[in-house]
Design goal:
alpha+beta; 4-stranded antiparallel beta sheet; 6 helices
Length: 366
């Protein structure tokens, strides 16, 4: 676990929310069932590279197949020795309600050993969904944020990832995705974070706005709302619902520790049971001071290096912390900060409290 200077403890992220809770719009808390994006993936060739293409066998095969479609047959056994062509994987997200003729962004990534895709152009490539159907076709010039440079002495520098690029509006939608949005007499709102309290409050807010029994909570994540059959009326109906303000339920008590950076995030309602904790620092220092031993003049001995190790152990002054019942972790942070301890000390205390069953919260270490 990384230790950070005690002075940095002042930068500890203590996310103990205040008692004042702000209301959120329903569109920020939930999504409508059936209204979703769909993943598309494809395979193609990027051409026009400045000698940074790949030399994979499947690239040559793909190039030969493409040339055959144009009526050009390469002699068997001939290596085209491509340097400006790269085989790539293409992926994109098809938004909900996307119509044929609309454009979407695509991301292109090398799947061979191409050094860079900078300056390349993607040739026409179909994008398929999980059902194998073609939903869009992609083509265009790549925008690559990274670059790669090398010198004659073998030195090399790489910034970002030059083997990946994007084509803004690089794919044209060819097929719509069928949605269940217009089916049935109701719509379902799925909460982004399942919570029984939030589901109840959403149901009450919708019923207060639309009338009794207009909404029914299915479970902690979903609320069913009666909706018009006519699509135009349903769109207007959802436009009103998604702007209803709802106060979400408080999140469960949780402490998140990032052991790499020493960041600690403490949520609301985190408390500890009565406990006493002592925490000290143990430092072990090992220093090596090798000595050279030389034999006397004209003696048959040899000059040797004799190791000389010195080990020192020092134990810092430990601090005893006593926590009463129901004390918040805000108080714990101030106590640890008051003695000039480091965030690593607080991490150790939190982990010890969790093991002792005194921490009334979920402890997550990332």
């Amino acid at each position: 676990m990384r230790s950070i200077r005690p002075g940095l403890l002042c930068g500890l992220l203590l996310m103990a929310l205040s008692s004042v809770t702000l209301a959120d719009r329903l569109k920020d808390l939930a999504s409508v069932s059936g209204v979703r994006t769909n993943q598309l993936v494809g395979y193609g060739l990027v051409v026009g590279l400045n000698g940074t293409g790949d030399k994979a066998p499947f690239t040559d095969q793909t190039f030969s197949n493409m040339m055959a479609k144009f009526g050009i047959a390469l002699p068997p056994g001939i290596d085209p020795k491509l340097k400006n062509v790269a085989a790539v994987a293409i992926h994109a997200q098809l938004p909900a309600f996307a119509k044929p003729g609309q454009s979407i962004d695509v991301t292109v990534s090398s799947i061979g050993n191409a050094k860079s895709l900078r300056g390349g152009s993607l040739l026409l490539a179909p994008l398929r969904g999980t059902d194998g159907q073609i939903y869009a076709v992609a083509q265009g010039n790549l925008v690559v944020a990274g670059f790669d440079a090398s010198g004659n002495d073998g030195s090399r520098i790489t910034v970002n990832v030059p083997s990946t690029g994007r084509i803004p509006s690089g794919a044209t939608v060819e097929r719509m995705v069928q949605s269940s949005f217009g089916q049935g007499e109701s719509v379902v709102f799925n909460l982004n974070r399942a919570d029984f309290t939030t589901a109840r409050r959403v149901t009450e807010a919708i019923n207060s706005f639309m009338g009794p029994r207009a909404a029914t909570a299915i479970d902690a994540s979903s609320i069913r709302v009666m909706a018009p059959i006519d699509m135009a009326q349903r769109v207007e109906f959802l436009s009103m619902l998604e702007n209803i303000e709802v106060t979400p339920g408080d999140a469960a008590a949780r402490v998140v520790i990032n052991s790499r950076t020493g960041t600690i995030i403490i949520g609301q309602h985190v408390q500890v049971a009565p406990a006493a904790v002592t925490h000290g620092s143990l430092t072990v220092t090992i220093s090596e001071n090798p000595r050279v031993s030389q034999p006397g003049a004209f003696s048959p001995g040899q000059t040797v290096v004799v190791p000389d190790s010195k080990i020192e152990v020092s134990e810092g002054n430990g601090h005893m912390f006593k926590f009463d019942a129901g004390v918040s972790l805000d108080t714990i942070v101030r106590a640890v900060n008051g003695v000039g301890a480091a965030p690593s000390d607080l991490m150790a205390i939190l982990e010890a409290l969790k093991e002792a069953g005194a921490l009334r919260a979920e402890l997550v270490v990332i």
